Amino acid sequence: MRKILFFSSILFAGALQALATFNPKAPSMIQEGLFFSSSCPISLRAGYEGSFVFDRRMKMENVGDRRIDDFKMDSHLGLVVVNLWNRLDLFGGAGQTRVRSGWRVEFPPSFFSRIDLETHYGLTWSAGGNLICYEWKDLSASVGGRYEKGKSSLLWITSDGTPFAVAKENNVDWNEWQANLSLSYKIDFLVPYAGVKYSRAKTKVEAFDGVMTPIADNGGNVLSMESRKNWGMVLGCGISNSKYFQLNVEARLFDEEGGAVYGDFRF
To answer: Nearest Cα to 223, choosing from 54, 101, 53?
Structure first.
């Protein structure tokens, strides 16, 4: 049975793509719910996730390794989780995300300008899952994946500190997918964990009609970004008394500097 789950988990990781990884023990941390007991093969949870990216290491797409100097995001999502056999979580959710970024533009050659922007909070949706593929006593191993996509309209944008007008159709589109492998160890009501993840992120700052100031090295008014580093590490800890509720905090390193807090309730 464990071998079947292990190979299924590999396929599962290839099919899904994601961001905050969640606790490897999450599918079985809450054994008793308000309506669903531990013996129920299917249960339902609902929760909140706050994700905060302080530095997502990005670069300009198709411009060598030219770095984006500053890329920050904060997201707030409501999630619904379907749990199967206390081993597999499948989730989907929606919420809002804000983007803040800054970079240097070289146009014409050897002439640099600085672009900075901030967006409104815009609609974001996310879907993914987490599968416990191996358990031995208090040790758990899981694989997971997630895809997230959003669009936020510009609040403001400046060139060397000088603002220029933006319209409603001036948006920042972004998407990211991720696969992860994590290990956790249960210590009473605490469940610390560590893991590795592989992710790819892309962002597009869309055209600005009538604005002559370039925001890209080709002199255009559209800029595409992509993740500069794809491999990262995750450290976190969950807390639960196995009834009704769990809370989890997480830090993400190397490919980004960020963190997340997540809590949910089992019905």
So the answer is: 101
| The pair of three-digit structure tokens given for residue 174, joined into one six-digit string | 């972004």
DSSP state of 221: S
Closest CA to 93 of 20, 26, 153, 42: 20
Distance between CA atoms of 180 and 144, rounded to whole angstroms?
5
Averaged pLDDT in 10-residue chunks for the chain of 267 residues: 37 42 92 90 96 94 84 96 96 97 88 93 96 94 96 92 83 95 96 96 79 77 92 96 95 94 95
Measured CA to CA in angstroms, residue 259 lies from 92, 120, 152, 168, 267 at distances of 19, 21, 21, 30, 27
- How far apart (Å, rounded) are the C-alpha atoms in residues 247 and 25? 12
Q: 3-state class of 11 per DSSP?
A: helix
* CA separation for the pair 148, 40 (Å, rounded): 30
Type and span of the H or E element at 51: strand 42-56
Q: Domain segments of the chain: what residues?
A: 2-266
pLDDT score recorded for residue 164: 82
Q: What tokens appear for 135 in the block? A: 């358990």
Task: Name the β-bridge partners of 172.
Answer: 152, 205
The one-letter amino acid code at 50 reads G
2-266 CATH: 2.40.128
Handedness of CA 241, 89, 150, 223 (dihedral sign): positive
CA neighbor of 130 nearest in space, from 240, 262, 267: 262
Dist CA 128 CA 51 (whole Å): 15
